[in-house]
Design goal:
This protein has about 250 residues and is an alpha+beta fold. It has helices at about 25-35, 40-45, 80-90, 120-125, 155-170, 175-185, 220-235, and strands at about 5-15, 55-60, 70-75, 95-100, 100-110, 115, 130-140, 140-145, 145-150, 185-195, 200-215, 250. The strands form 3 sheets. Strands 1, 2, 3, 4, 5 and 6 form a 6-stranded antiparallel β-sheet that branches.
Length: about 250
Amino acid sequence: MIQGPYALVLKFQGTGALRDVTPERLHAAFLGLLNQGDHALGRLLHSPKMGRRPFSLHPLGPRGGNGRLRLRFAVLAPELFARFWERWEKRGGIPLKLGRSFLEPTALHLDGPWCGSSSWKELSRAEPNKEVELIFATPTTFKGGDLDLPLPVPRLVFGGLLRKWNAFSPYPLEVSAQELERKVALADAHIRTKPFYDGRSHIVGFVGRARFRVLRGASPELLRAVNTLARFAFFAGVGRKTTHGMGLVRVNT
């Protein structure tokens, strides 16, 4: 079993054009797919006690106009999904039920720009650069009370990633939210707002790139943590609704 997060692309094919393929419907359909492969996993993901979701989900490209669907699926807790993949291999894939349509699995890709894997140790040993740049490929935003904040605020970007990392990694990062706020700055950004329709409402997010700098006087632990979290973002996503298609991110190398 992989000892760390991983991301792959699943391809499905239906018999005709798919209508009204919203993120909410895709999310529900994908939970149904996981439940087919592992009922215990399905119950866990539907449990109100489930805190942070142990995966992110992002549709890639057109959504179903020709009956085809590509889903980028990243796993943050490999041990939870082991039985699901056993069932997937045994059955030769599991159909995705989307509304009244059944989509058959046609491919599983482990290679590509949005695929990859890493051990927790490898991620925690990221090269300690003082600057990191992230590319926000799908609309990204953060919740602030009743409002959304579509801006790459360092404490929100890295604070959310830190909480996810410490929830799933066996190697916790010993830095505080206060350190992130005081010692990580936004050095440069080229972004624009972009709306995201989740099936119920329009959410304003941002896309583009943002460069972050660790300031002078920061501890070696903070410098390592920022670089680790920047690479972890490829799997975890950033901000709200990363299981519905928002916050797809990668490091600009």
